[in-house]
UniProtKB/TrEMBL annotation:
It comes from Marinobacter confluentis. The keyword Transmembrane helix does not apply. Residues 17-136 form the Response regulatory domain. This is Tetratricopeptide repeat protein. InterPro entries: CheY-like_superfamily, Sig_transdc_resp-reg_receiver, ST_Response_Regulator, TPR-like_helical_dom_sf, TPR_rpt. It comes from the Bacteria. GO terms for biological process: phosphorelay signal transduction system. TPR repeats lie at residues 240-273, 454-487.
Amino acid sequence: MNDSSVTSNTTDFGKLSYLIVDDFESFRLSMREMLRSFGAEKIESAAKASPAIQFCAYNHVDVVLCDFNLGDGKNGQHILEELRHKKLLKRSSIFLMITAETSKEMVMGAREYQPDAYLTKPINRAMLVKRLDSLVSQRAALLPINREIDRENYPEAISLCLKYLPTQPRYKTWLMKTLADLYYQVGDFSHALKIYQDVLHQRDLSWASLGHGRILLATGNVDEAAGTLTSLVEKHPDYMEAYDLLAEALEKKGKPVQAQRILEKAAELSPNALLRQKQLAGLAASNQDLSTASEAWKKTVSLGVHSIHDSSEHYLALGQSLSDLSEGDTSSDGYARADEALATLRRMERRFPEEENIKVRSRVVQSRVHAGQGNQMEANKALESVSEELANSETIDPELGIDYAKTLFRLDRDSEAKELLGTLSQRCADDPVLLKKIENLLDEPVGFQQKLKARGLNRDGIKAFESDNLDEAIKTFNEALTIVPDHAALNLNLCQVLMKKQQTTGDTQLLSQASKHLERLANLPEQHRQYRRLVSLRKKLQGMME
């Protein structure tokens, strides 16, 4: 039997519409001829990503055959990512990734957006018809279910899955997985959990373990979820979704550093997943690991060049992290980071010129970069270029206002910064997230390295206090306050230690010292999370002094 005799006995390929995406015309023509040879008629082609995506926006396509490498610009992964994000591919459509490249990095990255299959070049007719026949047969058999899911009619999709389970044994695994996912979507966790448990009782399938972990997490069983997902990652180290969910579980357990390590491992295995790099960057930044954060933001920016998920926020976050790292560092490394921060911010201005406040946000951080390198003239010049946009504290965007205040502190314009933050705290009284950012900046209006040192001293002081080493605690808190003299918690911590020591020594001068630290917080706003503690210690100190 020769290649030309290979046909499908079950599939009518002539009823389907096809889109071939490849930058080589010869390959597009070859694929077109193969499709025509077994009855396909509605065949379109594109050499680049933009026309391919545009075609899908206005036309229903049953089968997309897309090469991974498309020359300069977007690749096949970017096309699949955008089609999924914009919901331009129905669930019943088939996306085949075609490539001559088989590197693990490429496969892992593309797989995250779930192509239906891979075809490796060179492709012959027998290979193509065999793969298509299987996929199209499944598509036809399960079309009613996928149609209801596309319509977001999940109850009907659930009913159809239950109806098909006894009549479509060939697709039992797909039906079980889809049914469990649908139950999760509608919040019926008990039915979803039963499916996952029943499947796992018969076979150790990674998707069932992942679903089991997701249900445990959603129902508050965080410890059990973390254990299940840890086991899944160990058994199936290439299953990327498990890393993301495990990191979420560890964060909920109050273990953000361990969560970061999990995301670092996932990013190492599959480095081309932009959203995971972004998640890693944010988590590392919250863990005060700015080196890791800046590298992850750098990767996010790089991956975003051709991605639907590209955002000015990525550039801004990278500029801010590089600014913090370079502040006060006049070595060659510090200068290089500062230079990279400025280049990133200028690129942001050029890439997103139509976005509101883009120039202002950029110049505020640029000013801070220059100030961190001791270049006050350029720092002032950057702010002056957007002075009108920053003039009204009653209308300024709160996030921009907080960043602007941070820069004002670096330029030794503390009174302006505090006045701006005071106005913002009144405007944002109902937003606890923004209020916390304002409080943190008021407490620690210093550079990143100084902030880390002060926080370390605060932890050491608390340990000394808990060990009843009061003299060491007083010494350590005083040292921290030389860095951040207006830090509310530090002043209250020291006040508490001084009051406790007075109770054991009877030295009234200690109460006078404690009173001075409370007086330093006289203007602490009522919205501040340390305000109630301040009032309580003030009353207690007054009673002790009387």
